[in-house]
Amino acid sequence: MKTPNNKPIVLITAGPTREAIDPVRFISNHSSGKMGYAIAGAFLEKGFDVVLVSGPVNISLSHPGLTVIPVNSADEMYAACQPYFSIACVAVFAAAVADYKPAQVYSQKMKKSAYEFSLQMVKNVDIACEFGKIKRNDQLSIGFALETNDEEQNALKKLYTKNLDLIVLNSVQDKGATFGYDTNKITIINRDFQFQSFPLKNKAEVAKDIVAAAIKLYQQPEKPAQA
Ligand code: PMT
């Protein structure tokens, strides 16, 4: 597996996933992909090759070191990441992946009939968690925690259950942060319980902070203990 320039590879997931209900409907979320694409841009600037596995977004980014793989669903996102995870030095899971998908995808448009309608949902693959199980010591993985409450507690739980090296906490409680905005406000947490909080910044600047934290940790002779 080769990327354009044969440089160290960073794998990034970005954007939302769409989970089909029938041929014309899906379940999704408000992710614009801006945060993930900004991280891709920041790694490219630092000379890495980037494989960007992206849900449906309205952003176009081109660079000789960039490979964009467009996907729709969580299953497609997981499958697209698979050939690249083992050859990546860093993986960043910035996508807002749907935790659940409809148990059944109808092959024809569902007709309106009863007053009430319920949809059975099943758990989606947790991409960050699955790759956390096979991560090597020479690899770094960075996840995001998108929270509405109990932010730090929830972020720490995700850091450990997904076997991440860093987690980037962002909260929808913060004005101008998370979904859709050009800005974000983050706290980067490592496995030594060190919290680095940043003010609200443009996502391009936020991405540089994340990349700087990743490079600093990657260059450390001893990475913090793994799960
Ligand atoms: O795209 P923007 O509009 O710029 O918004 C940016 C963002 C808010 C989407 C981004 O900053 C962000 O927080 N992304 C993660 C959103 C999310 O799904 O968070 P979570 O707390 O539910 O998931 C925790 C981590 O596990 C994330 O790294 C997520 O990518 C990953 N995950 C979650 C579920 C799943 N099935 N597979 C995963 O890989």
Short synopsis of the structure:
The longest helix has 16 residues, at 203-218.
Keywords:
227 residues, alpha/beta, Rossmann fold, two-stranded antiparallel sheet, 5 helices, 14 strands, binds ligand PMT
Task: Map the helices and strands.
Blueprint: E1 9-14, E2 19-22, E3 25-27, H1 34-45, E4 49-54, E5 66-70, H2 74-85, E6 88-93, E7 100-102, E8 121-123, H3 127-134, E9 140-147, H4 151-161, E10 166-171, E11 183-184, E12 187-190, E13 195-197, E14 201-202, H5 203-218
Parallel strand pairs: 1-4, 1-6, 4-5, 6-9, 9-10
Antiparallel strand pairs: 2-3, 7-8, 10-12, 11-14, 12-13
Helix pairs in contact: 1-5
The structure holds ligand PMT.
Ligand PMT binds at residues 13, 15, 31-35, 74, 93-97, 99, 124, 126-128, 143-146, 158, 162, 170, 178-180.
Detailed description of the structure:
With 227 residues, the chain is an alpha/beta fold. Helices cover 26% and strands 27% of the residues. The protein has a single domain (9-103, 120-218), classed as 3-Layer(aba) Sandwich (Rossmann fold). It has five helices and 14 strands. The strands form four sheets. Strands 5-4-1-6-9-10-12-13 form an eight-stranded mixed sheet, with helices on both faces. A two-stranded antiparallel sheet has the order 2-3. β12 and β13 form a beta hairpin. The model has no long low-confidence stretch (mean pLDDT 94). It binds ligand PMT.
